[in-house]
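Entry 14. Structure prediction run on the chain below.
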Amino acid sequence: MASLRVGQNYGGDTFPYLSPRFESFTITDPDGTRAYRGNEGDQPALRTEAGVAGLTTLTFVSRPSKLIYRKWETFLRYTANEGLFGAVTTHLADGLPKTGFREDYQRHAKALIQVGPVRSDDRETAQGLDLEIVTLGNPFDPALDTLTIRLLRFGKPAPNVQIAHFRKMAHGTKVDKIHTDTEGYADIFLYENARHLLNAVIMERSTAEGVDWESDWASLTFQRMADQN
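Output returned:
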């Protein structure tokens, strides 16, 4: 079972399975990728049986949503928090207003699940998303202390982008902010008995009528236990 959640620091709202809200909802395992079809209104949004043992990826791509900024301070906090350096300078240089401007955004969420015994050579398959965090090792492998990840933008390396690494553990939630290198790579430490969440945002000026900014949000979650077997 898996839930669709929107919020911050592991808090927020849980949403049911509603097909008009997403562009794709898929399951990828060693047998390939298949679309997930639930019943409208199901909560949790996903209920299914694993078809085969191995590393499994759940992928959800929302439909684009819009946001109208009523306060300039909201934009300042958002861009600072997500490491979107240069956005404020560009906004002002382009003569955009400080209130009433619009951003269109889209979520690209993935979750990794280990089905059956851990195999250290299992690898996640990139899903071809507009923005995607890909693991280059098996995060459930107890022999791994660190994990190399790569951020892809339209399938190509995304350099110098902030990735927030959240960990929810028994004593609370912690976050580190790292940046991809010139080839889109970054390393994270794998904490035991922790739910890991990786998040990245890329925002660009929009050419669409009535839209000032466009952004893509990528997330990746997995739960690392002390005894994965």
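The chain has a mean pLDDT of 94.
Filed with the rest of this week's runs.
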